[in-house]
Every structure is written in structure tokens, then in C-alpha cells.
Amino acid sequence: MSRDQAITLYQPMLHAIAYNIVRCKADAEDIVQETFLKWLSLGPKKVEDTRAYLIRAVRNNCLNHINTLRHKKEELLNQHTIAEIIGRFKETSFAHLDLDAELAKAMKILHAKLEPLERAVYLLKEVFDFDYEALQDTFDKKKDHCRQLFCRAKKKLSEETAKLNFELPDKSTLLETFRKACDFGNAAELVQELKKDVSDAASKKSE
């Protein structure tokens, strides 16, 4: 069997093995490609059982990949602030390593420590790079007021969180719209959800 024939024959099987381990199609494809490149570099006489070698190599490469992602995730969670955890969520595919759980925890901290308007200003500026003029237009608040809200939010979030109760109600609607905004790069739906949050809070205060 030629090497081209071996690649054609074993590629679907190796993709299936890799995907079942890493649970990410793009990562699985990259791992299989890297495995084939390494195999091709060994020379035709270096591997006696090509099928067994490729399966073993793909599995090992998948485990190495997962360990690398886990270390990156641990570094992210240990060394970065809540803002960076939330911001990096839209850049990094860690869903299969439970970053979703950390994101939910971060959102609960935001709900516990910030008022609705503070939370809205903080999320849009810190994560989606809204400037103060855009925030002014969005919430009909002066730029200086938005600046104060943002600074106040950062200060509150820098305070101790260890004593917070994380069995807080799950704000699933806001969390889901946040995920969509990150996935599709469009914060319009999130802005509407935040404005509704602010409006609801104002209505309760006036009752």
C-alpha cells in the first residue's frame, strides 16, 4: 500500500478517534494532519504496522493537546481578572474544558457586586470596547457619568469575592446573549438585554 493510499484509507478513522477525544472538529483535523506529517517524515521502513502506529500517535497527540489546553485554562483562571476571563471567552475555544462554568461564575460575581447600570457599562466597555461616547448614546447618560460608573465597577470587582454566595439565581438570558455576542461579534442583542435589565431595576425602585 502506498503512503497516499494509507492516508486516504485511515484519515476518516483517525478523524473520528481524534474528535471523540478532543470534541472539537478543527482541533481533530489539525492533530490528524500533524500526525500524518510526522509519519511521513519517518521514512517508509521505520514503521512496521502503519495502522497501529497512526492510531497510537493520534491518541497520544490528542492527550498532549488536551493537557496543553488544560494548562492554558488553569493559567488563565489563576492569573487573570474577571474581565480577562470574560474577554478571552470570545477568543478561546475552551468550552469542552469547562470555561463555561467559570464564565457563569464570573457573571454571578458581576450580578452580586454591581448595579445593573454599572454592570452594563462595564461589560460593554471592558469586553466589547465601547467608548464613552457610544455608552452615552446607548444609555442616555453623560460620558463623565459613564466613566464614573466604569471606575466604580472596577473598584467593586477588585474587592474580595471569597465570601460571596455563588448559589445565586442563574441569569441565563443575559449569559446566553453574552455568549452569542462573543460568538458572532455582534453585541446588539446583548445591549438590548442590558438596557432591559437597567429598566427593570429602575421600575422596581420606583414602586
From TrEMBL:
Residues in RNA polymerase sigma-70 region domain copies: 7-68
Record's protein name: RNA polymerase sigma factor, sigma-70 family
Taxonomy of the source species: Bacteria, Pseudomonadati, Bacteroidota, Cytophagia, Cytophagales
SUPFAM superfamilies cross-referenced by the UniProt entry: Sigma2 domain of RNA polymerase sigma factors
GO biological-process terms attached to the record: DNA-templated transcription initiation
Domain of life: Bacteria
GO molecular function: sigma factor activity
Entry-linked Gene3D superfamilies: 1.10.1740.10
NCBIfam families: sigma70-ECF (TIGR02937)
InterPro entries linked to this entry: ECF_Sigma-70_Domain (IPR052704), RNA_pol_sigma-70_dom (IPR014284), RNA_pol_sigma70_r2 (IPR007627), RNA_pol_sigma_r2 (IPR013325)
